[in-house]
Amino acid sequence: MDVIFYHPSFRADKWIAGLQQRLPQARIRQWTPGDDAPADYALVRQPPVEMLTGRTTLKGVFALGAGVDDILAQLRQYPAMLPAGVPLFRLEDTGMARQMQEYAVYHVLGWFRRFTEYQQQKAQSLWQPLPNYSRSDFSVGILGAGVLGGSVAESLRAWGFPVRCWSRSPKDLPGVSSFYGDDRLSTFLNGCQVLINLLPNTPQTTGILNRKLMQQLKPQAFIFNLARGAHLVEDDLLAAIGAGEVKAAALDVFAREPLDKQHPFWTHPAIAITPHNAAVTLPDDAMDYIAQAIRLCEAGQMPSGRVDLSRGY
Question: What is the enclosing helix (H) or strand (E) of 273?
Answer without folding.
Answer: strand 271-273
